[in-house]
mRNA-decapping enzyme DcpS, putative
Amino acid sequence: MRPAPARGSFPATRLPQLTNLVKSFSAHRTGKESSTNFVHVYPKNIDPPGTVTPQLLASSSQCLIVNDAYPKATVHMLVLPRDSNVQSLNDLNRNHVDLLLDMKKIANDYISWSRSNVGASSSTSSVWTTRPFAMGFHAIPSLPMLHMHVMTLDLHCSPRVKKRAHYNSFATRFFLPIDHVIEDVRRNGFVTINQDVETLHQYERQPYVCLWCGSNAFSQLPALKEHIKECKHRKCGAP
């Protein structure tokens, strides 16, 4: 018998933005059941902060990729299931393993496609070719509708990383890699790694730690960002 999900492990709000986004793009279908359909190269974030328009980037039979409207990295996308009944990690069971695998596949397909299709003269070409990507979920998301973050590991480059929670939600164990979630569901039949709510919130509030070298000598975010630019362990290219 599956225990009831921990109180506080559900999305922090009921705001419908992502659910509405899936509905707005739901008519876009791929030609083949297993194929990924590429729609747009990831748009360079040239809009003023807070005005980035969500754009469909790619789709499959089960999933959609859109750009994050409040990107915390140079490239920051969301993978969403077409099934709007899957509202959070707490809705997943072994029947959703194929969905999780498809979310991972469409992300990898899109990254590979973009690396081949972003021209050498583009301002983002080196981003795609030199910077590693992370894929995973916030343990306690802010919005309903299951969504996987796919992003370059250059949080120090984003002007939208303004406070502790913005950084720590991706740079600590509050961020659950897709492979860890898949393994958890396969082993236990549902997601367990998002249930220790108190510890997860401690990760959000913990002191700043460089995600590359582990240094924690930072009381303020600007100092951390400056450190990451010079960190010899950094693997995300310039700047």
About this structure: The longest strand covers residues 76-81. The CA atoms of residues 9 and 140 lie 6 Å apart. The mean pLDDT is 90. The chain has one domain: 17-230.
